[in-house]
Design brief:
The termini are far apart. 72% of the residues lie in helices and 0% in strands. The chain has three helices and no strands. Helix 1 runs antiparallel to helix 2 and helix 1 runs parallel beside helix 3. By secondary structure, it is mainly alpha-helical.
C-alpha cells in the first residue's frame, strides 16, 4: 500500500519508482520462468532420447528404470546415460 506524501514531487517520484520496480520484477520473473521451462524441456527431451535409444536397441526398461530416467533433471547425467545407452546390454548398466 502506498502512503501519500505531503509533497506532489515526492508522490510522483514514489509512484514512478514503484511502477519501475514492478515492471522490472515482472520482467525478471518472466525471464527466470522461461529459463526454468527451457531447462525442464531439455531434460525431458534427453530423458526421452535415452529411453528411445534403449527401445530401438530392443532393451526393455522396467517402470522403475523409466521413472528414474524421467525423474532426472540433471543434463550432464542425462547426457552420460544417453551415451551409455548406445553400448549397454541392460538398462541397469546406465547407472554404473
Amino acid at each position: 500500500m502506498r502512503t501519500p506524501y505531503k509533497s506532489e514531487f515526492a508522490n510522483k517520484h514514489h509512484a514512478e519508482g514503484y511502477d519501475e520496480g514492478l515492471i522490472e520484477g515482472q520482467a525478471k520473473g518472466l525471464a527466470e520462468g522461461q529459463a526454468k521451462g527451457l531447462a525442464e524441456g531439455q531434460a525431458k527431451g534427453l530423458a526421452r532420447a535415452v529411453l528411445e535409444l534403449l527401445e530401438s536397441r530392443k532393451i526393455r526398461t522396467s517402470a522403475s528404470i523409466r521413472s528414474r530416467i524421467e525423474g532426472c533433471h540433471d543434463e550432464p547425467q542425462l547426457l552420460t546415460w544417453l551415451l551409455r545407452a548406445a553400448h549397454v546390454a541392460t538398462p541397469e548398466e546406465l547407472f554404473v
